[in-house]
Amino acid sequence: MQTDIDPRSLIGRKAFDRHGAKIGTVDEVYLDDATGEPEWAAVRTGLFSRDAFVPLEPSKVVDEGLHIPYDRKLIKDAPDFGVGRHLSPEQELQLYHHYRLDISSPPASAPADQGFGRVAGTDD
User: Fold this and answer.
1) Residue 14 burial (CB < 10 Å; 0-12/13-18/19+)?
2) pLDDT score at 117
3) Cα–Cα distance between 83 and 53 in angstroms, integer?
4) pLDDT of residue 36
5) Which of 46, 5, 47, 45 is nearest to 29 (CA)?
């Protein structure tokens, strides 16, 4: 994802799938504990207002919207862990597997239980 954008500014933006179809609105952004970089977004989807977690890499911000390079069905089938909570290592691994992303281990300097995402704008 573009690193020059404030992750909090993503909240409220419309999210689109790989074909440009609107899938929802960004509710939360989760930062990697080790790097502080934006890693995941929770997108409020559909009529039943469920949150789907999407990877911010390789997503792009284009024309004020978040464009996610995955099909709508894959995004809507993503695990829903609820928003506003820290993602556990197990939950993040589920997301990596769901999107078939390369899983790299956290840096050696990161504590074992701190290598995964936290909500942007929180101190814990």
Assistant:
1) middle
2) 55
3) 9
4) 85
5) 5
Rounded to whole angstroms, how far apart are CA atoms 68 and 50?
A: 17
- Give ∠ CA 77-79-80 in degrees, rounded to 5: 110
Q: How many other C-beta atoms are found inside a 10 Å radius of the C-beta of residue 110?
A: 15
CA distance 75 to 99: 8
Q: What is the structure's pLDDT at 111?
A: 43
Q: Which two tokens stand for residue 82?
A: 């609820």
| Sequential DSSP letters for 46-64 | TTTTEEEEEESSS-EEETT
Spell out, as residue ranges, where the chain has pLDDT lower than 70: 1-5, 47, 104-124
Parallel, antiparallel or unpaired: strands 38-45 and 118-119: unpaired
